[in-house]
Amino acid sequence: MDFAHDARTEELRERLEAFMTERVLPAEPVAREQRAAAADRWEPVPVLTELQREARARGLWNLFLPDERYGAGLTNLQYAPLAEITGRSPQLAPAALNCGAPDTGNMELLAEFGSPEQHERWLKPLLEGTIRSAFAMTEPAVASSDARNIETRIERDGDEYVVNGLKWYISGAMNPRCEVFIVMGKTDPEGDPRRRQSMILVPRDTPGLTVRRAMTVLGFDDDWHGGHAEVSLENVRVPAENLIGEEGGGFAIAQARLGPGRIHHCMRLIGMAERAIELMCRRALGRTAFGRPLADQGVVRTWIADARVAVEQLRLLVLKTAWLMDTVGNRGAHTEIQAIKIAVPRTVTEIVDRAIQVHGAGGLGQDFPLAELYASARSLRLADGPDEVHQRSLARRELARHAD
Amino acid sequence: MDFAHDARTEELRERLEAFMTERVLPAEPVAREQRAAAADRWEPVPVLTELQREARARGLWNLFLPDERYGAGLTNLQYAPLAEITGRSPQLAPAALNCGAPDTGNMELLAEFGSPEQHERWLKPLLEGTIRSAFAMTEPAVASSDARNIETRIERDGDEYVVNGLKWYISGAMNPRCEVFIVMGKTDPEGDPRRRQSMILVPRDTPGLTVRRAMTVLGFDDDWHGGHAEVSLENVRVPAENLIGEEGGGFAIAQARLGPGRIHHCMRLIGMAERAIELMCRRALGRTAFGRPLADQGVVRTWIADARVAVEQLRLLVLKTAWLMDTVGNRGAHTEIQAIKIAVPRTVTEIVDRAIQVHGAGGLGQDFPLAELYASARSLRLADGPDEVHQRSLARRELARHAD
Amino acid sequence: MDFAHDARTEELRERLEAFMTERVLPAEPVAREQRAAAADRWEPVPVLTELQREARARGLWNLFLPDERYGAGLTNLQYAPLAEITGRSPQLAPAALNCGAPDTGNMELLAEFGSPEQHERWLKPLLEGTIRSAFAMTEPAVASSDARNIETRIERDGDEYVVNGLKWYISGAMNPRCEVFIVMGKTDPEGDPRRRQSMILVPRDTPGLTVRRAMTVLGFDDDWHGGHAEVSLENVRVPAENLIGEEGGGFAIAQARLGPGRIHHCMRLIGMAERAIELMCRRALGRTAFGRPLADQGVVRTWIADARVAVEQLRLLVLKTAWLMDTVGNRGAHTEIQAIKIAVPRTVTEIVDRAIQVHGAGGLGQDFPLAELYASARSLRLADGPDEVHQRSLARRELARHAD
Amino acid sequence: MDFAHDARTEELRERLEAFMTERVLPAEPVAREQRAAAADRWEPVPVLTELQREARARGLWNLFLPDERYGAGLTNLQYAPLAEITGRSPQLAPAALNCGAPDTGNMELLAEFGSPEQHERWLKPLLEGTIRSAFAMTEPAVASSDARNIETRIERDGDEYVVNGLKWYISGAMNPRCEVFIVMGKTDPEGDPRRRQSMILVPRDTPGLTVRRAMTVLGFDDDWHGGHAEVSLENVRVPAENLIGEEGGGFAIAQARLGPGRIHHCMRLIGMAERAIELMCRRALGRTAFGRPLADQGVVRTWIADARVAVEQLRLLVLKTAWLMDTVGNRGAHTEIQAIKIAVPRTVTEIVDRAIQVHGAGGLGQDFPLAELYASARSLRLADGPDEVHQRSLARRELARHAD
């Protein structure tokens, strides 16, 4: 369980830090202006395209992908400090490195479970960053954290599958460059609960697929990342070879996808917390009330100390989880993945909330990144299963350890 | 300290409940559609105008104003249960009754401190609801909760005052019908700290006053209420008679205004909490996960119980504060006003947050009112002074009680 | 819902305040020394006997009992501010006024449900303070908050009942003057779940009843109040007329007893919180660290403010509950009784904990009353049903309100 | 930063686990009985002496001491998992291994700063376990977390020093085998604030040293560990060679002592948390209320999950701190030592509190180790400086990182 950076990680870390300082952070206000002036705000901003070109040139592309055929071949432990750094500028940095959700998870999924044709048709352009993708699992009508509840139907009809269902909070789908949806649905509604689901690729332009509207998150629509769409599928027909893996394999693929997806979110959340702490400290040092800088006032100090102490713990738990995933596999790290899923979004949400409080009214507004960080962190207490589902499951395993 | 509703309150309460059920709640989706379709989203939606007409017809107009010359002449204790009810639909109900912030505070201020000419020119159209107003105190550059920090200058020049300064989070100012600003600034920057400030009326169309941009609150811009604007004042000249009260009286007027403003917010917050509890319960009853309704799952029950227990306490403290304001005056109720300012926004924020959690991803989105309730409640932990300023002040008085 | 003190309450309150200041608080160190020097520490200390005599002389005796035949005939609302005052010195004041648990509940129970012979034999000496009593409900082997779990058997055998069972945390039973136990057990284990239990009077000297040992609470044994005993009953025979009320009436009597018992605890807890706040403030004012009094340090101020704001709310909720019990009866006030049972012990525990923290190591020791206050408050999160049982039940009723 | 157990640690860990299972845990009830039956309860119980003999025979003696001349020569990282295991039985295991506070800190201090004569006279018998020692720093009259406040005087007078002062919460001092006190006091009250203090060895039988009374901690007197005494020093004369190190070196020695002392407490606290989690789970599995085991009830699951997630984080932070102490020294690990001092006692206190709640009334009593665990954990939020002092200091360093 050695968390020290090896030489490769350290070299990449330094390169990434330089990229952040020289290019990404200065691009933040530029991006904001471009966003405000954009004809179609769902399109990626031009400065992002520049950053992507530059990231590629600097060898900072597709770092997330452990599959050496296609990506950097980093372990989770190597990737963790890098993903954390991108979290400090969550609107730009992950996308600049082609390391943003949900594409990363989709690319991993295709690399592992996709057919050679699917690799050629979808994975490669995703790796090039020329197209984007979405993962369509959550449904408005059911508690989707329990995959057995999924109601979307995928029915075989000759050489095709017919898909019917309603999905929402489909991240990235508002981006017009999002050209393909990986849709989770039931192929065998009466079968073994863990063999009922399948996953299938649905191109955006397939008749019957409609991107209906953008869902918001605490007032934000995350146009940076292609938003979160409500998507209906009405008698959508795709060729049978669009199925990913085998029929009934959807649950297993989802499980395989979720582990890395969750830890990537947690890595970035730690970077978000670091950004919030930095802003909180700068504000506390620079702002005077009642004759003394906020930094001299006890309660702000308590918040800063607690934030630092919490982040140190979260980071170590994420690193341990990454190390476990690397050594015993995602299944072996199941408890730890749940542990970080429980702890990191919740704690980072609290840290950002306190940073907001130190900033006064402005903390909730658009002149600081805190409100948007808050919305992101808060939404991750619900995405990929609410806290309570993971607590319940983790407790069951803890209880089992103590049952005689 | 009798909190029972008297006959008049009870009669008004029933009338208001009927109005809510018959008109306001059904208008919510209508208003949302009108908002989405509006050419200028800062304009009030048409359905609001209808509601206002109806409220007037039903005798539910200007209930907030204790001054019998102009308003309903209700005591704070009588008004409390009515304001609470409007909080259940905070986008529409307060405005429908001409009882929304910041106009209520401005009308009270003018009724108490304004000259007869100011009554005629500004107060009357405000009472009619034909114009709206803003209260310009907060500044981006200083901790405005300490009024001594205000940097805007109001300088006498012959028969005029010249105003220079930058304000932000000026609620209501994006509404084009907002025709007048009550601006707080310093007339005597070197004088006694509590006699340095004055308040002055600045019509919107005065040269030099620029409404620069809309500030957001957690991604919302509160277009319902005319938003929150950044407003610059550059060599703005107004006649000397636009001063409210006397030179140096600004601090005292602000103090007088803040008490009622704060308690009105708290009354409505309790209604917002009731709405959140109702939504949380309905969702818990209607949603099944892992084979059982959420309502049968322990942690949701804990949240519901704690929310109910908290709201009962908050309401009683607000009622006691209202009763004190009625009997010993706003100054005599100073500690209690601070107590509710500390307790109510914080607790209601937590209650709404848990209601969101019960709703899953949708809880953060636009299909439920929870995200917007959250933003409102959260912002009130900062508006009119952050929690920490009030804690500090209340503690000082508590400590003084125990100093020998 | 008028919470103002009426003339009688105000008169008693002033009389009681004088008694506290002149006699009770000065007796605290005396009692501590007498306790340390006592041959049998379970015996009441001599100074308590003096205080009782004095309380009687001052007309401050049996204030708790609403039954005018025997007690002061105060309503709950009248008694609340008086009980609160006694909470400031919880080791001495309630006992000094013959208003301490569990005797108060037992006296109420006997007054309401006891036969004339039981009144003569047990109630009158209890009212005189010449004997003490215990209430034997909780059992070590089962979750006793669910009365259906009670396993003690009470079986009819001719003119007698035979009692078998094991009870623990039987408060007051270590006091040798505790001469009678009210024992809850099952007379009809197969009957309707709410008609299975009965209550019966068992004199201490009955063969088969053994006071086995003193249970501790966070290291304290509450010798002040006769401790908390483990009591076994092995073939204990008592005359049939010792049954209280009718066979099968135990559950109903328990319910009737618990409401007043719970609110009395809550009233006193508020006084305990006031004592903790006073100590916290005095310490904060008198102690210097890092060059400034603790009172000037932000986090202590936050604690003081939050404590004051919380206590104001708790007191109002207790008063409302008292008023409801007086007007609609204990059953009608069921939700509110649960609400205070949930809120008051938990919040007061936190307040005392923070007062301890302000005192440093000494806060946990015997030189301040805080550690003992902490243990008392903490134990009331478990006594009469743990928080979670009440949350569960209160939530069920809240949910029912929102079920269509 | 490799946290994996090396071969030696793993071997010791297994040996220690066997010792715990075979000897220590079975000795717990024996010790309790011996304690209850003891003539002098401050004397160590006989079973402890047996355990010590056995621990020595098994090669589990003085594991704490990194100094290879005298101890096991383990690094902090090697010692951490072993100390954690002893924390599961905190009354017996640390003492059985001669690894209990405050002797460990005193032995380290003497090994590092003591003269050869002091090694011979005091360190060796301490290492043998034939005598015990105390560390006398805290004073009742001042905030002792700020060492500058210490008021005890140590004055040179010819070949002797004269010590005057009053100390309290001097752990271990009630044990009659505690033969020596390391006393902190001021030799140069007007000097540089960090050079004013010195430390000196005062044998228990020195005239003028009086062990006045046992201080309690939440009702416990920790007789297991020799309690916590109030100790007065009145004109106590000791030879000048009893000074440890040089005059004015007391502050630096205290700093050196505190780091290892704090981390040892934290290591054991994690074992205490593990014990609490185990008890909580067993209780939840074995106890039924309202027709279902507590383990099936949501809120208990939440507590179990949160406890597990918290403990994993705490352990990693302790291991990182240990690793830093081993690699960059105690001074280099200053921030991390403060971080664990802030996080571990507070979090473990909460975990134990919830385990108590799951146990009902019994959780606070003597039949489970939880109440005593609670008192230990709670007291460590105050011992060696209250949380707030460490938060303040850690925040100052965090703020400094962000000051431009």
From TrEMBL, chains A, B, C, D:
UniProt superkingdom: Bacteria
Signal peptide limits: none
Ranges of residues in domain Acyl-CoA dehydrogenase/oxidase N-terminal: 9-129
The keyword Cell division is assigned to this record: no
Any GO CC annotation of this UniProt entry: cytoplasm
InterPro entries: Acyl-CoA_dehydrogenase, Acyl-CoA_Oxase/DH_mid-dom, Acyl-CoA_Oxase/DH_mid-dom_sf, AcylCo_DH-like_C, AcylCo_DH/oxidase_C, AcylCoA_DH/ox_N, AcylCoA_DH/ox_N_sf, AcylCoA_DH/oxidase_NM_dom_sf
Residue ranges of domain Acyl-CoA oxidase/dehydrogenase middle in the record: 134-236
One Pfam family, short name: Acyl-CoA_dh_M
Keyword Cytoplasm appears in the UniProt entry: no
Any one GO BP annotation for this protein: fatty acid beta-oxidation using acyl-CoA dehydrogenase
Alphabetically ordered keywords of this record: FAD, Flavoprotein, Oxidoreductase
Family the entry assigns: Belongs to the acyl-CoA dehydrogenase family.
Subunit structure: Homodimer.
Protein's name in the database: Acyl-CoA dehydrogenase
Lineage of producing organism: Bacteria, Bacillati, Actinomycetota, Actinomycetes, Kitasatosporales
